[in-house]
Amino acid sequence: MPVNIIHEKGKMTAEISGELDHHEAAEIRMAVDGELAQSFPELLNFDMSGVTFMDSSGVGLVLGRLRTVKQWDGKVRITDPSPRAEKILKLSGLSALIVKSRAAGKKAEK
Prior knowledge:
The protein is an alpha/beta fold.
């Protein structure tokens, strides 16, 4: 599966890798929604550093989960999107959710 879900105290991270198209977004959506229904995290983090391709299905994935976590006053952020994913996110108006970590900078230097 192109998503690895990690739970930490009050935080859930969905590490997404590979292509984020219609088919993959549907699988990721089901996995993330199932975990959200059980944990109700304060923060849902999408780690998109491994995304090689993204279309509007990825935008829909993020927006749908944003609506979901807002029901319990949770927040969504996107960390370290690949350049291709970042371009789509910015064009869609989701740039306010993007956070770049220091780890991403270290990866880029190698």
